Amino acid sequence: PEQELIDPYYVGLRLGIESRCQALKIETVKVYHTDSKPDASLLQGASGVIAIGHQDEDEIAWLTRHARQLVFADFVPPSDEYDSVSSNLITATHKLLNALKARGYRRIGFAGWMEERSDDPYYEVRCHSYIQWMRANLEFDPEICVTERSVDRHTEQSGYRLGQRLMAVKDRPDAIVTCNDNIAIGLYRAIAEQGYSIPGDVAVASFNDISVAQFMNPPLTTTRLPAEEIGETAVELLLERVAGRELAKRINLSSQIVWRQSTRDETQRVEMAE
Fold this sequence. Notes:
single chain, alpha/beta
């Protein structure tokens, strides 16, 4: 529960599952992921299981053994034999970067985290997609692509540390994309402490569109990932499986950029070009 509260995105996803089940009068039981696997009887006693977030091979195999029916939410397993619903983060990242480029930004930095299961600092999907896009469209500079592996890597504290690193670069970025809105909150503080303004000196754009994003100063441009809709759709997939559907489905829900004042608008871009 403590880890879930770090990122409100996952609270929204769970609420989507619970609200849909409540409307259909379906009882739900929450089983939190810890260092050890939960009691298998909790899964075996249910009509089906919705697994939220990334699962490694061992976890997928364990879930398959003990769940009568299984759907993955916010994660696409390697095998296409499983039902899954998610938002394509590769597409969402490329969409955001294309939009920033269209608004005149050219030196775009990135702030994110390292995945627990990898030693590659660029393995996380948004970071990897950012590098891929930068190499194809502008210029990738590893000096302004910063990640860290820390216990609070999803949080404001991590964003503050990453922001200090980015703003200390001699040729600082003119825009920064962060892995989530929490990172962006910490980034705001680091930028302000260095005496820079948003978006005058550096723009900030992010992912998730948590509720606080619209109340930041300035309000944060962010990519809305449909957390609640992912949860609701996962319930529908599970019910289809319980009813007898055998062919697996993979559903990809689209993202939406919510433009706010942390980035300049199209009018400002045109004026600068003139």
